[in-house]
Amino acid sequence: MEFSHYAPLWGEALLTFLAVLVVLLGSLMKNSGKLMGYLSAAGLVVALGLVASNLTIKPALFFFDTISVDALSQFFKVVFLVVSLLVVIASLSRYTGKGAEEYYALLLFATVGMMVVSSSIDIVTLFVGFELASLSTYAMAAFDKSKKNLEAAMKYFIFGSVASAFMLFGLSLLYGMTGSTHLADIAAASLANFGPATLVALLFVIVGFGFKMALVPFHMWAPDTYEGAPPLVSALLAAGSKKMGFVAAFRVIIIALVALRMEWYMAFAILATVTMTLGNLAACWQNNVRRILAYSSIAQAGYIAIAFVVVGAAYGAAPVNVLNLGLVPADQLGIAGALLLILGHALMKTGAFIGTAQVSSMVSKGSETDPDDISNYAGLAKRAPITAFCMLIFMFALAGIPPTAGYIGKFVLFSSAIYSGLVWLAVIAILNSALSLVYYLRIISYMYLKEPAGPKMAEQKGYVVALVLTLLAVVWIGVFPDAFINWAMQAAAVLLPQ
Amino acid sequence: MISNVISLLIAIPLLGAVVSFFAGTKAKFVALIASLIPLALSLQMYMEFDKTSKLMQFVESYDWVPSLGVKYTVGVDGIGFPLVLLSTIVSVLVIIYSWGETKKPNQYFALLLLNEVGVLGVFTSLDFFLFYIFWEIVLIPMFFLIGSWGGPRKDYAAIKFFIYTHVASLVMLLAIFALYFTYQTPEGTRTFDMLTLLAATADKTIFPTGLLNIIFAGLLLGFLVKMPAFPFHTWLPDAHVEAPTAGSVVLAALLLKMGGYGLFRVIMPMLPSVDKAFVTIIAVIAVISIVYGAFMALAQKDIKKLVAYSSVSHMGFVTLGAVAFTWMSVTGAMFQQFSHGIITCVLFMSAGTIQHVVGTRVIADLGGLADRMPKFAVLMMAGFMASLGLPGMSGFVAEFMVLTGSYATLPSYTMFVVFLSVAITAAYHLWAMQKAMFGPILKKYMNVHEPHAYELFSMAMIIVLSLIFGIQPGLITDIMGTAATQVMEPVITLTQMGVI
Fold it and tell me: Which of A210, B159, B176, B381 is a good FRET partner for A308, with 20 to 30 A between their CA atoms?
């Protein structure tokens, strides 16, 4: 087999090689943290280019049909690479000293893990990718070694392990029943013959993924972890690794467990409603900005879970004229909406967490109070104008105000709910969007309307570059959404029978 | 003729907003230029405007998001154009009035220009999606104007304003989506085109009455909150009292008009197809707004709050005229929008000037100011007279047209308004004026002096405009008359609708 046969996987190969190189070079050279950061950034840019050159590739299978490079995997790989790149750029102002090379290596390994998950069509490969990403991020969550870090990392680790155990147990039942680890084979086996065992398997899979996606009531780890981990790591967790849970759940639940769709349809209808409502309500009562963002990210997971409900309701339905896209099945539209929301949310959340990282890095010097407390955001517009302005746009975007990336995913997703006859779900989701404005506006009013909590602060270059890049992407997607909608539609088609 | 004139109209203040944000203390000059160009453009449009045409004019249309059916379509007809003119005039005058602003002037003027962008966009958009974006954009500068330059309770007022009107906009958005998802073009595509969707609402096979009633109620709520009409007016007094003067002026003169514009553009074409009870509901809301607003104004201690409630009362005439559905009343209601838009500027400017010259707005603490500031007193007096409906000024013509027109179809409502509000309106204006400006001057105000020339200039310009349009209303009502005919084309009277 010649080398070029694996061209679609060069991105993963490059990053794996680079991660090892960063560890080796870092241990050989002194004070190489910054250099390793630049090296990682360059590697991520090249990997992004490699992935982007195969954006809407016809599904190509590798390694005994365990890895599939298709439009869906490429979509998620772009999301993961962009998030990692932005985090690395911001980290160049934060992680430069001793041990920094470990940080960059872990981040690269985590990215590779996420990329493997997005391509996996076999449950063992999927699990290996998942653990690669998870183990790397467990270590990253404790990277600053403060007490809070350790607590956050511990919680994240325990909950993550429990989730993995649930997931693995569910998947092992599936393997036991069907005799295959391949998703397509599991889908082809008639699961209904196995009676209640299939329901047990489904339950474990949903609980496992529920933890990973932070759906209520499996969300408890998320606020504590996002609050306690180093802020830039929180960005990677909320924007990157949580999205990994979604791509895995998409593949396992929509492809492999399609026969059980009437069962998971109900489960996700309840989970989605409860998650978005409780996420938004809880966010209103928080005083820690990172906790607010964590609950907002839980609420967003609730919106995204609507896609499962839509697929369950509309699977195999005849295509109808949707929006202006011509004849399209409603379930494809639903998945496309979820993908757009994932893309938009990944960018907005990366931006928002980088913003909090910037603030806490500026505030925490010589301060005893919690650097993420909302009181530290008072008058931020005067103290750090660029950060405050970017945060302002991210808040509006998260609330779904057009023309930003936030509205486009919601628009497509909620309209798919309408097309599949779930008007009630669309109305609940829109009312939730309205509710979410309460806490986003609270952050905005602190930043822009309160008297400054202290003197002007020096905004650090790495953070500013990352923030502005994210801002441009968020606005670009919102103003020219057409190409992104078409791309998401193509990616969504991968999950559905042709 | 300039091509793409409406896009220029919107783009220039937007550019101006960005430039003045970075212009530091020079921002006011940038803002003045960036608001004078749209004024010149809109006057040029006025010259070229075909007053007899019922079609959209100066139309521009480009694909924006083809996969969703969103287009960038702008154009004006007799409903929108007078308000475009109003927006460009008021924006210039409010920038001149604010010439002395020293607190963060770059942001202040940038926000005023951004506001102009938003309202011009609302009055010219012919695509519901675009319309909604501009509708929401307007909230942002106003939120910051109230929140950053406002009075003691500014945070509360800013957030209340934002949440209240945003929730109403969301209800409106739901209704827009219902229109969008129900109607399919003959080619099987979806569209946000306002005129197409509104025309389709007349078709009972596409929009059954039950569904249309719900859509209608959602849209109506969005517009009534913005107007604001009783009982959705509670955000307005708070926002006005805390807002800086320029914010109040823009809020009352332009933002409230967005609600009225929605009535004419969206509500009236749908009115013949919905449940007849809506006519009664809207008429009752209109009458209560007029009467309740007037009584509340009479009870206020703060002169700015008095003016705020007078806005509720005056905007009630717009609602009444629209729902009475005669040519006279609809034309009058459109004219009332324009007329109230200019007159209310001078009222809020008066309240603002009194606040910063004297240091209080409580009417009971004022007295005899005319002695020290005669020029200001003359202008304020003229403004108050215009507002209470002195013949010869625009307010009189507008309200007279509304009442005469409404009497034909809604006589009992109209009589109720005439008996209860006309005298009260005169009373609160005259009482406030008399108490604040006339009588013997209080000792503590001996050092009070005339306000700045630029403040007097803006007020004087408005009085002149009110006089011009009071004496020669045809300058603008010709356009509105054509629009009224066009709005009423499908069904001519309430009798034909089966309401009375």
Answer: B176
Task: Write down the number of H helices and E strands in chain B.
Answer: 22, 2
Average pLDDT along chain B, 500 residues, taken 10 residues at a time:
85 92 87 92 91 87 87 91 94 91 87 94 93 91 88 84 86 89 84 89 86 92 90 88 90 92 91 87 92 91 90 92 89 93 92 86 83 88 90 89 89 82 89 85 81 89 92 89 83 60
B232: in domain: no
B78 within a domain of the structure (yes/no): no
* Contacts for B131 with CB less than 8 Å, ≥ 6 apart: B121, B122, B125, B194
Residue A487 has pLDDT above 80, yes or no: yes
Separation of alpha carbons A160 and B178, rounded Å: 42
Q: Tell which residue, A151, A302, A97, has the closest CA to residue A219.
A: A302
Q: Say yes or no for a CB contact (<8 Å) between A324 and B167.
A: no
Helix/strand/coil (H/E/C) assignment for every residue in B187-206 = CCCCCCEHHHHHHHCCCCCC
Dihedral pair phi/psi, residue A371, rounded to 5°? -65, -20
Chain A contact set for B66 (CB, 8 A): 324, 482
Nearest CA to A228 out of A300, A288, A298, A161 is that of A288
Q: Is A347 a residue whose pLDDT tops 60?
A: yes
d(CA A86, CA A463): 9
What residues form DSSP beta bridges with B60? B74
Reported as a single tens digit per residue, the pLDDT across A323-346 is: 778 788 888 999 999 999 999 999
User: Would strands A320-321 and A67-69 be described as parallel, antiparallel, or unpaired?
Assistant: unpaired
- DSSP H helices in A63-122: 71-91, 100-119
- For residue A164, the Cα-to-chain-centroid distance in whole angstroms is 17
pLDDT (average), residues A200-222:
91
CB proximity B181 to A under 8 Å: yes
- Total domains in the fold of chain A: 1
For residue A254, the cross-strand partners are none
Tokens representing B423? 């005298």
In a domain, A112, yes or no: yes
Residue B124 forms part of a structural domain? no
Within 10 Å of residue A151's Cβ, how many Cβ atoms?
17
Contact A48, A82 (CB under 8 A): yes
Give the A window 396-415 contacts with B, CB below 8 Å: 396, 401-403, 411, 415
Residue A431's closest chain B neighbor by CA? B170
What residue in A sits closest to B171 (Cα-Cα)? A431
Side-chain-side CA neighbours of A392 within 13 Å: the count stands at: 19
A430 has a chain B CB within 8 A of its CB: yes
Cβ–Cβ under 8 Å, residues A314 and A334 = yes
Give the side-chain half-sphere CA count within 13 A for B438: 8
What type of residue is A299? A
Number of domains making up chain B = 1
Assess if residue B472 is contained within a domain: yes
CA gap B102, B499 in Å, rounded: 55
Phi, psi of B268 (to 5 degrees): -60, -40
pLDDT of residue A326: 77
Q: Mean pLDDT throughout A301-316?
A: 91
Report the pLDDT value the prediction gives residue A366, as an integer from 0 to 100. Answer: 57
List of residues 6+ apart from B234 with CB closer than 8 A: B164
Residue B437: domain span: 276-500
Is A397 a member of any domain? yes
- Residue A165 falls within a domain, yes or no? yes
pTM given for the model: 0.87
Q: Note whether residue A498 is domain-resident.
A: no
Q: Is pLDDT at A197 greater than 90 in this prediction?
A: no
Q: How far is B342 from B90, CA to CA, in rounded Å? A: 7
pLDDT value, residue A381: 86
10 Å CB burial of residue B344 (0-12, 13-18, 19+) is buried
